Structures
1.
Amino acid sequence: MKLQIFTVDAFTDQPFSGNPAAVVPLLEPLEEQTLQNLASELNLSETAYVSPIGGDTESWVTSSQFTLRWFTPTNEVPLCGHATLATAHTLFNCLGNRNNRLEFKTMSGVLVARKESSNIVLDFPENPPEPLTAEQTTDLDVLVKGVVNNLLVDTVLLSHTTKKLLVKLHSSCTRKDLESLKPDTASLLSLHNGSLVKGIIVTLSGGLQGEMSEDSQLYHCISRYFAPWNGIPEDPVTGSAHTVLGPFWSKELGMTRLRCRQCSPRGGDLIVSVRGDGRVDLAGKATTVIQGHISI
């Protein structure tokens, strides 16, 4: 069997930056193990499988409703922003979908992607982080230190819905400090079994306090994301992490529209709008890098 496959760099308009995801359009279901084997073979942080609901080959052009699943090299995950953006980009720009609004039925409910100017906007559930209990603080303290080393920490919170630990560095820390972090994957896996935490967001203010301008080099927040428990030592740009970062920084800064930078070595940009209805809009760009077929 031959399958179409697209590799898309998400949250960037430049190839070889942002976060790469594979997108595999399917008209017929595949066995679970085949889905996982293919994701492992591709070895990207996410492989997205998209299918039109009740459709045929013409549905790639006409349908506005799809099922969507996301697999890392080791397991299926309930939510992935950059692979959703990559999927919407593939439908709009590679498969010729004529709609301006797409709905994806997923493990996290129905997610919407829509065209807006030069961006694709994702309508996602917000996942605000919460304070740790005293017991959780004690249990996770060694894990936090394993990520940030000797940097001072201001706040540690947990998003229970996504199992993401948010670590806000002290204001004395700089972007250079954040970019210099090199946590050891094997060490992190030995410090925690993934039962409570599946990924760690390390964040810092980006220096932008007011409304954003097109030529500003500042951001409302900057971050990095490490998820070895999902087979991802570091994710280049993470949409789902910004469903946690958005409500946190919105509250910190008293703003609802945030310009965000994930400053991994590849790096990428997002605009996060906290809507106040339990949802966030994640806006970004994407670019197709590879188109082809894979035989299974």
2.
Amino acid sequence: MTRNIIAILRGITPDEVEGAAAVLIDAGITSIEVPLNSPDAFTSIAYLSEAFGSDALIGAGTVLTVEEVNRVAQAGGKLVVSPNADPRVIHATKTAGMQSWPGVMTPTECFSALKNGADGLKLFPGSLLGPDGLKAIRAVLPEGTQVYAVGGAGPNNFADWFAASVDGFGIGSSLYKQGMTTADIASRAADIVAAYDAAKQD
């Protein structure tokens, strides 16, 4: 069973990325992004795409330009996540055959992102809008719109977000921080997955 969780491995290096991804996938987290402000991020994405591309959705976060989109595609990535909603980035992502998850906050940004072809919406930072804000926006979004909460969403409030109709989450520092061992990551991933499953069933 997989979960609607995108693991955000900010700061990870190419020499540790495969070990981290392996334990995440084993735990049931099969969408993984390497933010482009991580060291040698494109190399990490290439390693992950080669090793796990058939088992997981691999891609990049903090993607801000069309050039970066193209480099993600060249590295074998299939997922592009951004903190903002830039139509040029969305178009380039879809042209390259990858999933586009732009960051949004307002209804205007939501509708603009969807109009330009986004596969789903990254509510970022989720802590600013909160579950109540999502409820309000959900009332006007097209049926079936996928919304993931990122920033301020975690095991202590998964249930609140699910009650507000969220579809999934992007999880960063709760899963990975620089310097963690694979055992640390595996333990945190197990805890996150257990909390997700429990909240999903409530």
3.
Amino acid sequence: MSETKKPPAAPAASAKGSVPVSRERQRQGRRKTLRTLLLTGGVLGAGLSGYLPLVYARTSRLRPPGALDEKAFLQSCIKCGQCVQVCPVDAIKLADLVDGFGVGTPYIDARAQACDFSCDAVQCVLACPTGSLTYHKPAFLPVREGAALPQKPTLIAKMNDPEPTLNLTERMGVARLARPESCLAMRGEGFKGQARGAGFEGRMRYAAVDRWNPIRVADHPYDLPLCDLCMRECPIAGAISLEKFTGADGKVRARPVVHENCVGCGVCEMICPTEAASITIVPREVWQS
């Protein structure tokens, strides 16, 4: 007699009584986990995309010359970019998405490219169609205490012109010696070479080189026994001076001093050869004696 074949035995249960998971079930579980992770990341990303602009919106931006106070500026600027088009040194940029409520509005990154008034007449003010940049505020917008300039600023490059002043009545900000410990003048050191290195693309008008056309800062090297670049290249007469003193080591040093004539253009920050800049601009800062 032939033996009767028995049906194959069922898979043995594990010690806890569970049945081993098939490979397909394992793949489905991995896909589900991956979808959950991606969904979680998307939700977090969407949340941050709304939160980050609010954070960056609180960051003070250096606005172009003649800008209204921030709230009025944001309300009146139509983001047309006319000021960007007329700037001879491309100092004015338009804010991107991370700038929150200020997206599309013009600002200046002084360290990358300052406003050196190469246009003489402040063309951005003349180009603005809404008065967001203006020489004179309307009567219903008061001038903040300390924001007004003591007199029309005198442009050094125009000293020999019949009218050497700018029509600005309010400052953009105020320069501050933010890092005196790194300032070459404070340390009694000179400077030789290109102020920001050979690769720096920033431009500036050197009246002794070309009265009308700005050139690359990298194309104008220096050789100074005592660094005075912030004072030397400041475009506004009487805005920065150096007060020399003798240190405890007998070394002659100098302290950059910012005066009320400062308009906050940012040239001193751009030209400062230390990294980070020893002197910086505080946007929308008012004058405090």
